[in-house]
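Complex record, two chains
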Amino acid sequence: MKPFDIVIVGGGGAGLYAAMEAMKTNPGLNIAVLSKIYPNRSHTSAAQGGANASLANKAKDDTVEMHIFDTIKGSDYLADQDAVEVLCSEAPKIIRELENMGTPWSRMEDNTIAQRPFGGAGRPRCCYCADKTGHTILQTLYEQCLRKGVIFFNEYFALDLSVDGSRSRGLIAMNIKTGRIEAFPAKTVIFATGGYAKMYWNRSSNAAGNTGDGQAIAYRAGIPLKDMEFVQFHPTGLRKSGLLVTEGARGEGGYLVNALGERFMSRYAPEKMELGPRDLVSRSLETEILEGRGFDSPAGKYLHLDLRHLGADLIKSRLPQIREMCMYFEGVDPIDEPIPVRPTAHYSMGGIDTDNFGRTVMEGVYAAGECGCVSVHGANRLGGNSLLDILVFGRIAGRAAAEEAGKFNPAPISESEVLEKEQELRSFMQPSGHYERYGSLREELGQTLGLNVGIYREASKIRKGIEDLVALKERFSHVRVFDSSDVYNTNLLQVLELRNMLDLAETVAAGALVREESRGSHTRTDFPTRDDANWHKHTTYTLEEGRPKLGYKPVVMGRYELQERTY
Amino acid sequence: MSDSTIQHHEDSRDVTFRVHRFNPQVDSKPYFDDYTIRLEKGITVLRALNYIKEHVDASLTFRAFCQAGICGSCAMRINNMSKLACTTQVWDELEKSREPDIIKVEPLRNLPLIKDLVVEMDPLVDKMKSYSNWVDSKMSEENWGKKEFLVSEAEFLKYDKATDCILCASCVSECTILRANREYVSPAVLLKSYRMNVDSRDSIHEQRLAGLVKDHGVWDCTHCYRCQESCVKHIPIMDAIHGIREDAIAERGTKDTSGARHAEAFMEDIEKKGKLVEATLPIRTNGVVWTMKNLLPMAFKMVLKRRTPPPPPLVKSTKDIEKFRAEFKEMTGHVAKDHAKKPGE
């Protein structure tokens, strides 16, 4: 089989932009996009808010410089400043490019792309399409990939890299529809599989499949991960599903109320109340629950987001999507009842360690988007920068891979390697003696992460979490796949995804334990302040003898010196 | 405060899911399995299916991803209507169930079955490709990223609703034409085609339209509105279909497709005769040769079996028909004027 020039794993915003840009760079290349779902289903579609770019359509005095500063400050100074410069200076170009290829942006009165204010940004620079920005960007990119004739392998699950010394030979994947294990020899591989926050399971707003597949594959192949301990929590996830109730609900005047009927934010942010910064509000909800002032239910403890005083008219006109979501997913109409909420994990700042071109330490392997860590978000991502990240660095990785693809011819992937994978998968279906159910392992994984490596962290708790993870990994070796069919075996997929999450969870916990400071999303109750002298650095994780080995990398500085982060 | 005093009260009940099963490796034909589980109020059909998969039968197979109503993966037929399992409340469905406490769950129709509730989506993607469901930008790629097209809010509003489509294929599943002819373009692809055609940044409007008026295209729709009724995003799909038709007649006239000729024959009959003359309709729509080849044998059979209707009686001119003719004349006058204006604008 002739090797592909580029195999892209993942069909969200980063993967599709990479594919398109690679074809633009060199139309003669043989490029394939592998995705475990149809690309138009990717989680990019769930991003509602928008993408930041200093187009200065709304605030005429907005500049790339201001965007850079906001992003660095937002990251609690852990972002690499050269990478942030790339992100922000490419932003206006990439938003216009999307516009030129057909993305339906909302418009200003002068017919230019509309922009709105967003958290942590000094100017209104968030470009949007109503409250469906990610969805429309994803649709546009998918349409353009179809136009350009990108080859899609839809419903293929990537299993592992095939490694030849310091280089990758390509990828081994399973065709979900047939169960066949297939080799994808490739000169270059780009991982764009999204985030890993689903490891918090029903304490996560993520799609069921955001299980960090690309990160786990890279990690198993010896590629370092970076800054994994930084997971962003959103204050108001729905109690049962963890799905987001956007900040807009509080922006319109919603109250957060505990089981005693108190607007408890008066304790934590007496002036800003419900509209304090995201990490502070998340921590406040968590404290209320921990101190026993939450409501109880079979689906876990929760608090109330009360919109009733806003009145039916306002709820219907300004928050129709929120109302619909509450009715669909909680069976609650916010006009008549308060919404049950609790903080929910929703974005992973960490990922595969890459340089500013998406390159990893392994030759021929790239990563982009939430899957990678350049790093532009540091310890805390700003709203509107995640869509921007996947677009900018998806495109850069696509171009870089296209330029490299011509220079190398990989050795073929041996049949025995494919057979080995087949046997490995089959072994899940025939465990001997005692077996474990995947569902309970996954439930316990989410639970221990939420309790011990969640919003508030502390050495003794994290150690407990690590013990739990080791035990869960042991139990996982006895996990059983009950569906023995080859065709569309989702039971097997769930187990493989769980394996990926378990591998990555260990790095999240290891980083949380070692980082003895509080920075951005990472809050240690035993080390409540930022410690620049010892911890102004990235953490890295390499798999050694089955456990994560920690390393450190300096933060790339530039124009902006360290400052206290206040708003 | 003790936990019991703040316990959130929820009612619960036993619910049976009657689920379509088929594993091509084992089963010669599909069958149904009943799963009865106890559920609390407020739960969605998808969460119930997840529960069954985890606790009762791990082999039960369905697609699900975002579980928040935006990715479109979990579309399936629930109580005989295609919808998203993740946004469907069990308690709401129980009210619609034909048998008490039983919810029927089946895969989408009109797409090839893979396993249990999973169908093949490739035919839909193939149609998106053959009908160019993308903006082919007026700006050449080298110039992308330099400056914005200026687009008015009014133009944006023309395709705003259409861009809500998440390609869940509920409309594809409910389409009555696709039931008879799987080659039919399908409502989702018509909606997307419409969205591209009204976008001023697009350069292949005419080419796309030429494809849409061919066989299995926009004229095959019978206005049953089933697609619009089943749309999980409440998109007025029929407006898009009508939009393409109006566009086709405006741009291409009424002579180039059977659909448009059919519509014109209707107009002519109503205007001149006051009723539809079905006997000659096929000839006027598809021509003499086509009619002789395709319909004459059937006509002979109908004569033999005495199933031919008697010749139509003339309709006496009543006041209402007169009034209708006058209005009709005025309307067609306007349309003709509009068409005449078009090229000059």
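Note: The mean pLDDT of chain A is 93.
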